[in-house]
Every structure is written in C-alpha cells, then in structure tokens.
Give the backbone structure.
Amino acid sequence: MRRMLAVALGMMLAAWALAARAQGDAQKPDTDEWGKLVAANNLDLKGNTPFHLGMTFQLYDLNGKPEKTGSFEVWWTAPGKQRSVVHLDGLNENGIAPEGANVALVRDSYLVGELLEAAIHPVPSVRTPTDLLTRTVKFGKIELDCIGPKPGPLDAMNARPGTACVTPHTTDVLILQGLGGKMILIRPGTGKFHGTCVALDLRIAYLGKDAIAGKLTTLQVENAAKLEAETPAVTTSGAPVARMSGSVIAGQRIKFTEPNYPEAAKIGHLSGAVLLGAVIGVDGNVRRLVPIASTDPMFTYAATDAVKRWKYLPYLLNGEPTEVDTTITVNFSLNGQ
C-alpha cells in the first residue's frame, strides 16, 4: 500500500458533532471536566504514543442507503506531525475532492473528514470551559452523563454545540448527537490504546439517517524515529480557510432569502430540515453548497436555492478577509418554530 511522504491532513472539518437533546437539571461543571475527557479520549495529544491507525468505512447516500466503501490510514508522531492517506475512488489521497468534482464526491470528502476527525480527535477544544452544562441523558436502557457548551440563542436554527456523553463514573466518551431530534451513539464500541479510549466502531448520522460508518482495522505503535523522519509538520498551501460552527456563522449573516416552502410539504403538513456544507468567500458570498443530510429531497432543493443567495460579513483572520468552511442548517416548519 502506497504511503505519501508529504501528505498533509487537509480535510474539511465541520463543526464537530451535534448536541444531544435531553431534559435534566443543568449546572456548571468543574472547569477540569472537559480537559479530562480530552485527555482520556483524544489520540492527537502531546506525549501520546506514536501510532499507525487504519479504518475501513461505509458511505451512505442522502437517503441513508449504503453506497461506497473505502478506507483511510493515519501515521501520527505528535500534534502537527501526521500524514494521512485516503483510499476512495474519485478522491485524492489526502481525502480532498479534485477541482471540478461533482457535489456527491465533495460530500464524500466531507464525511470522510468527519469520520477521521472523530477517530483521532473526538473531543474538541472549547474556548470557555467554564461555560459548560452537565445533564443526564437516557438513551434506551443506558444512562449517560453528558457535558457540553451552553447552547446560544442561534443554536435553535443551527447545529447545537457538541456534547460529550460518558457512561457514569468513567471518562470513556460514547457521544450522542442529535439534529432534528434524532439521537445516536457514534462510538458504540470502544477499546483502550495505551490508556486512551478509542472507537472500535464509529457511526455518524444526521436527521436520523446514516451518513458514514467506520470500523477500526489497525491501531499499533510505530517507531517514533522512523515516523519523525517520514512525517512532515502539517502545513497549508494557498489561501487560509477558517473552520467555523454553524451557530457562529449564523450571527454573521447580513442578507437573507426566505426558502420557498414546497407545496407538497404544505399539503401534507410536513416539516423537515436540511444540513448543508458551505464555503463562504472572502467577500461574504456563498461560494459552494453541498447537501450533507436532508429529511426529503424537496426540502434540499428549496434550501439550496435560497442559501446560495445569502450573504455574510467577511470573516477576518489577522485582519485579512478569509474563506470560511462551515455548516448551515435550514429548518422547515409550518408553525414557524
């Protein structure tokens, strides 16, 4: 199997996971609790053992039907020192869709990036760890202790902040996600690798439909000196791209076109939602839209047709206008909620 000596991990990483919807008393946790979850579950941490990770995956179409299969491998030495190779027809070896690729292939690239991120770095950093809420979620017969950022006023319109859920009295994150009220365990099977809880199986779904599922095939210690010699520091080429959550970018919107509510949905009294992957240009215009998930194709077209005409305040990185890679959720509800 070929190994690229200078492939940087350049995958699209959207806002991580989606929140669990649950009832329960909310309170501020100890400020160290989130850090404990990061330390116990993330392979991408300073001081961790150098490793080679391999995973096979199954991609699903927008209707949740199995479509393509592939695999990826990651060789990691330290934060910023890793390389990855993706094996999927149509994608470049770094997991990026080639220039001019169709929408379906760009979606594949997005989902593979999400899966890889969930395998290596399942618990994201948070800027304000004191502004976290804890809750207890019952998922089937399982009770989970959950912690995550406090939802903001715009999160009802977009993906709510990521919430990490663990079995009581452990730090082994199983994680619940919920968009459109649907919740799933994205790490139903876990094991240990040098003290770190890792996923043996991964499942990512949106709006109640499977999007991509992975199975761990390789996770082994690699020779640190050999990897250091072969693995360059992660670099970026071309113009920088900022990763931003859907709820944050929603606050930057300055031009809005109301999506047309499909007549068939009105007649059938149907509600729905569409999750779009988006790139917003340096001028604030929407440059690219990719349907990631949808409750129904008729909502997909209406959402895409409207959002492509939205405009946002240009995002400044170090004072310079910068492209933004984000997600946009469009909800369709006859009662306006």
